[in-house]
Amino acid sequence: MDASDPEAENHKETVNSILREIGAFEGKKIIEVWNKADLLDAERRKFLVSGAGEIYISAKTGEGIDRLLKEIEKTVSAEYFHADVEIPHFAAGLAAIFYNEAVVVSRLDTDKAVKLSVMCTGKTMEQYKKSLMED
Question: How far apart are CA 67 and CA 77, in angstroms?
C-alpha cells in the first residue's frame, strides 16, 4: 500500500475488507507492506511505523527491502518444507499437484518415475498421497 497517500488508512481498511471477503486471511499470515517510505515526513513515519507487523519499504531507495525479504523467508519456511517425491509413471499426472500448489525446485525424469524436489505444505503432500492411493 502507498504509505504516502493521505487516505492510506482508508485504503488499508478497504484492502483488508476485500481480503476477508475472498478468504485470503484463512490460515495465512499476512505481511503488511507499505511502499514509498522515503516520501514520509518524520511525524507521519512515527505515526505509521507504530503498527506491529507492518513493514515500510521504499522501492526507490531500497529502504526496508532486506527486512521484507527476511520476513517473507521466515513466513514461507514456517509453512513449507522440503520433500523429494518419486512419482511412478502411471501416476505422472499427479506432478500437476506440485506444480499448482507448491514450488518445484527440480525435476528428473527417469525410466521408472518422475522425481521432484519440492517445497510444499503438509496439505499439499496429503493431497498428493490421497490422489496416489486412488490411482
Answer: 15
